[in-house]
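Input.
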Amino acid sequence: MAHEGFPGRLFTANSPPLCQPTPMDDRKLRYDFNKLGKRLRRDVSRAIADYQLIEAGDRVMVCLSGGKDSYTLLDVLLSLQRAAPIDFELIAVNLDQKQPGFPEDVLPSYLAALGVPFHILERDTYSIVRRLTPEGKTFCPVCSRLRRGQLYGFAAQIGATKVALGHHLDDVVETLFLNMFFGGRLKAMPPKLKSDDGRNILIRPLYYCREKDIARWAQTREFPIIPCNLCGSQENLQRRVIKDMLTQWDRTEPGRVENIARSLANIAPSQLADRTLFDFASLHRDAAASMLIPLQESPVYE
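Output.
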């Protein structure tokens, strides 16, 4: 259900594009570009409306890593900011983790040219990640934990009311299967979450967006992508296995991944087995109703 800040359908066919594309001679390319932009706007607008991710007066801290997802997140939110019927503030924040070879000038130059308020946090979490990660293990768990701590703490310092993360639909479904296959839990990523310390509200505006759309948009927009060399050099990550599985499903069973994502919003606790969500112990036959059903004697065969 849409809330009063963001109506259910924010954009129309006459809405301005996310940004003005460079001149294209090929009409088909221009058509595809505009169609993709409208789809991303629609998906983000729907997520915001469904879960009240952004409200009037919000100061939204957009976590910008330099990857395709966070660039697209900022791009779409800037479009929403220009067209939305409410006022909200966007502040881009990048955490420079001091990884060797990290191009320190790319994001400041990009954001300054864009005219977006931004902060670059310089924190040497790289050396901590290397020190705390056992040999043969992936860096991601320690890295993400340290990164969240730094970013969430800074959000409180600048008075951000929301912290926007770049996770998309594929991330959500991948996390669901990772937790099931390797953790024995039915758990994914919610579109909106209060941090453990209660200081921050985390939002995922790309919740309905497919990664393939984001990748195409990033390529078309020619974002200055900064690869993550810390974990990207590691092979056989469990998430990669899950990602390959979803890619195969997209080829052979189109729509399956979207259906899995939709199932997360259509949960029937009585059809699962979690005793904390449903009181199985108190389930008993309805005595009055059972008396209305005559007992059928079993036939006797000689």
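The chain has a mean pLDDT of 84.
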